[in-house]
Amino acid sequence: METRECEESSKTGAEAEPAADEELANAILARQFHPSLIGPETWEGYMFSDLEIRIKESTDLYGAVLWPSATVLCHFLETNRDKYNLMDKNVIELGAGTGLVSIVSSLLGAKVTSTDLPDVLGNLQYNVTCNTKGRCKYTPLVTKLVWGPEVEPKFPQRTHYFDYVLAADVVYAHPYLDQLLDTFSHLCQADTQILWTMRFRLDPENSFVDRFRERFLVEELYDLPSLSIKLYRAWRRDKKTKDQEEATV
């Protein structure tokens, strides 16, 4: 009788975990909203606390579309602001796209550097300015960054330190995965933490995670199967805080 009860209890727990993940995914998606009337500009909305963030999109560019991975990372930053406190922290976002993660980080009090390729900077700057002006402690910086060799001269380690490196949906079928990995490595210094959301699609981008683990210690914070998205926290293998050591035990 006890064995059957234990089996039923274990089964109930296993069923509860996917249900909790589904509930979390629905809560994240509920933050997004769309205009009630169609206007001349395509945009999506995101609710941060009681603030309405409006994100202008450009559907002809991958980097100018609001992807679900960004909303997952934003939800995490907002709901875990006590443990991952961005107030007065130096934060850089890679592949910022429409700028939602940079905007939310700025609203949480961070000193934000928002980066992407030149062809999306205009839309990125527009969104960041419109949604942070008069709302944030620090004015976010929007700047061009090409992954790879350009990172060292633009952000030399002797003068630039970031507490957090943020990235949402930067891994997909593009030919610059090696450069992205090198960029993560350069920007992640002694006590830097990487918070990175990834939507799993097909190889070779999925195998990027294995290569990433060769350079960094990694903790999985979210696994949302209904969205095919995971959220990782990572830090340099040669530098671990006591809290980070415990997380990998």
Your description of this structure?
36% of the residues lie in helices and 23% in strands. By secondary structure, it is of the alpha/beta class. The chain has one domain (31-247): Rossmann fold (3-Layer(aba) Sandwich). A seven-stranded mixed sheet has the order 6-5-4-7-8-10-9, with helices on both faces. The protein has a three-stranded antiparallel sheet with strand order 1-2-3. β5, α4 (121-132) and β6 form a beta-alpha-beta unit. The two termini are 35 Å apart. Residues 2-14 have low confidence and may be disordered.
Strand runs, count: 10
User: C-alpha Rg, in Å?
Assistant: 19 Å
Count structural domains.
1
Q: Summarize the biggest pleated sheet.
A: 7 strands, mixed
Unreliably modeled segments: 2-14
Here the CATH topology equals Rossmann fold
Sum up the overall morphology in one term: globular
CATH superfamily: Vaccinia Virus protein VP39
The percentage of residues in β strands lies in 15-25%
Cα-to-Cα separation, first versus last residue: 35 Å
Count of DSSP-assigned helices? 8
How do the strands line up in the largest sheet?
6-5-4-7-8-10-9
Structural class: alpha/beta
Q: Architecture, according to CATH?
A: 3-Layer(aba) Sandwich
What do the pLDDT scores average to? 86
CATH class: Alpha Beta
**Helix percentage range:** 25-40%
Order of helices and strands: HEEEHEHEHEHEHEHEEH
In short:
With 249 residues, the protein is of the alpha/beta class.
Question: Mind sketching the topology for me?
Answer:
Elements: H1 2-29, E1 32-33, E2 43-48, E3 51-56, H2 68-79, E4 90-94, H3 100-107, E5 111-116, H4 121-132, E6 141-144, H5 151-154, E7 164-168, H6 177-187, E8 193-199, H7 208-215, E9 216-224, E10 229-236, H8 242-247
Parallel strand pairs: 4-5, 4-7, 5-6, 7-8
Antiparallel strand pairs: 1-2, 2-3, 8-10, 9-10
Helix pairs in contact: 2-3, 3-4
